[in-house]
Amino acid sequence: MREIGQPYPRLPLPETSQAEDLDAFQDWLQQAIPLVAHLGLKRMTWQGDTLVWYLSLAPNLNDKGSGFGGSLAAQTTLIGWCWTTLWLRGQGRAQDVVVASAEQRYLAPVTGDYRLECRPATADAVDGLQARLAERGKGRLPLVQRLSVGDTCCLEAQGDYAILPLRD
Fold first, then answer.
1. Most buried among 3, 82, 88, 107, by the most CB within 10 A?
2. pLDDT tens digit string along 31-51?
């Protein structure tokens, strides 16, 4: 286990002509953030501008036998961090990403394995971020998350992610 306050080594940026290897990113993520290995994340994919995670319910059960709200909240926050980090990596940018705000709205119990999706909150969110990064080297990105079991939306969330210059 690494020491508290000790950053985990960054994953090298992908070659400009290559897409991100999501399996390698997931492996790195589980090492960089130890909690990830316990969240039931089976795989992640891109579908257009949406990052999609497929998760097992079993490690996220509450005392009632459905999804534990704390785990689900952590997952919605983390997928937003991943969306932002992966997007930056695709732009050839190695910058720090932190969550600035996050909120969840629970709509129905999570009673089976589920799908979690994350995308920009508005059609122009990424364009606005690109402009701020070009101008100031930092910015914020609003993202929305949706967790579903089959066709049932169980949770809606939103988060604001800050992109910061690298600290030395």
1. 82
2. 999 999 999 999 999 999 999
